[in-house]
Amino acid sequence: MSKFELIEKLNKDGYIFTSDVVAAGISKTWLAQYVKDNGYERVAQGVYISPETWPDELFILCRAYPKAIFSGETALYLHLLVDREYSNITVSVPANFSGQRLRDKGIIVHKERDSLYGLGKTQIETNYGHDVSVYNMERSICDMVKNRKFYDVQTYQTALKEFFRKENVDYSKLLEYATALNIKQDIKKYLEVMI
Q1: Which residue(s) pair with 48 in the sheet?
Q2: How many CB atoms neighbour CB 141 within 10 A?
Q3: Which residues have C-beta within 8 Å of that of residue 58, sequence separation ≥ 6?
Q4: Contacts of 176 (CB under 8 A, 6+ apart)
Q5: Strands 108-112 and 90-94
């Protein structure tokens, strides 16, 4: 099997990732030639997309920055807790992560201390069918309550109503995250009213 055929096998829905190619023992030189010959476009560091593929912004971001976890309004949107798309992409990263490249792209970056970073991390499918890292519903609601001054009233109220309508809510996780984020009393008030 030729190097180009091997690279073609690594094609995932029109995406090719440098990390996958290198892990398969193929040099970046072969990848560069394949990309040029087939009209692939570099959409992020280490991420190439075929000309006929519609770009999935969240998936590209997730692959280019594996430590970024979607949070805030972006997480609420991915969990179908709000009825409109996020205005800006929001991610959470470890405290020692620079984040400047993300900010330069207009992405809101929240740095989190080690005890909170990754708490409630899960995978969810984007509208394009790709899995991305996101905080689960319970963590997303806790983050929203903690940072309520940054949310407009409609988004805040809609997310709370939709969250408490869901049948798959894990209330023990909700309280666990609320405790970790120092908002347990606030969450308990919502539980008394909404349930």
Answers
A1: 16, 42
A2: 26
A3: 70, 74, 78, 89, 126, 130, 132
A4: none
A5: parallel
Residue 15 has pLDDT above 80, yes or no: yes
- Asked if 69 and 92 touch (Cβ cutoff 8 Å), the reply is yes
Question: Strand, coil or helix: what is 92?
Answer: strand
More confident residue, 79 or 4: 79
Please give the average per-residue pLDDT across 143-160, as a whole number: 95
Tokens in use for 110?
């929240």
Q: According to the 3-state scheme, what is the secondary structure of 108-166?
A: EEEEECCCCCCCCEEEEECCCCCEEEEECHHHHHHHHHHCHHHCCHHHHHHHHHHHHHC
How many C-beta atoms lie closer than 10 Å to residue 75's C-beta? 29
pLDDT tens, residue by residue, 49-81: 999 999 999 999 999 999 999 999 999 999 999
Contact 91, 20 (CB under 8 A): no
- DSSP letter at 43 equals E
What is d(CA 140, CA 25) in angstroms, rounded to the nearest whole number?
39
Note the pTM of the prediction, 2 decimals. Answer: 0.91
